[in-house]
Structures are given as structure tokens and as C-alpha cells.
Amino acid sequence: MNKIEIYTLPNCPFCIKAKELLAKNGLKFEEHDISGDEENKRQELKEKFQLAERATVPQITVNGKYIGGYSQLKEIFNSGKIKEFLN
């Protein structure tokens, strides 16, 4: 079973696109809404994923492998490399 995690904010257009892309491809995901403590969660994500800048959303992992945001997710799907991340 694949474990996909996505860190989001409710009205984020790129978060919505990322969730739609995953759903369209039949992939279930666990969503983590960071809106309750946004600034602290952004800092935690920055540290967790070793980002140089402030963490944006969405932030996505597939089976523990860091993908990045929506643009990176879309690129992985378009190139067919998503198979390398899935079980």
C-alpha cells in the first residue's frame, strides 16, 4: 500500500490541483491541513524537508520520499517517473 502525504492549506490553488491530480490517478493520500498553526507548521516543514526558504504548500511525500510541491508532482507524472516512487 502506498503512503502519500500532502501538507496543505484550505484555499491554496496548488494544493487543490495536487489533490485533484492524485485523485484523478486513483491514488489515495493523507492530507495534513496546516492552517491551525500555519507559521509553526511551515517552520517544521522547512526543517523536515531541509528547505532553504520558507516552506510553501503543498509539500508532498510518496512512501517517505520527498517530492516537493505541485509543479514537481506534475512533472513526475508527466515524465512517467511516478512509478519509481510507488510500490
Question: Secondary-structure blueprint of this entry?
Answer:
Elements: E1 4-8, H1 13-24, E2 30-33, H2 38-48, E3 59-62, E4 65-68, H3 70-79
Question: Could you provide a short overview of the structure?
Answer:
By secondary structure, the chain is α+β, with helices and mostly antiparallel strands.
Structure explained in plain terms:
- The radius of gyration is 12 Å and the shape is globular.
- Helices cover 38% and strands 20% of the residues.
- The longest helix is centred in the N-terminal third of the chain and has 12 residues, at 13-24.
- Helix 1 packs parallel to helix 3 (70-79).
- It is α+β, with helices and mostly antiparallel strands.
- It has 3 helices and 4 strands; from the N terminus they run E-H-E-H-E-E-H.
- Helix 1 links the parallel strand 1 and strand 2 (30-33).
- The model has no long low-confidence stretch (mean pLDDT 96).
- The chain has helices at residues 13-24, 38-48, 70-79, and strands spanning 4-8, 30-33, 59-62, 65-68.
- A 4-stranded mixed β-sheet has the order 2-1-3-4, covered by helices on one side.
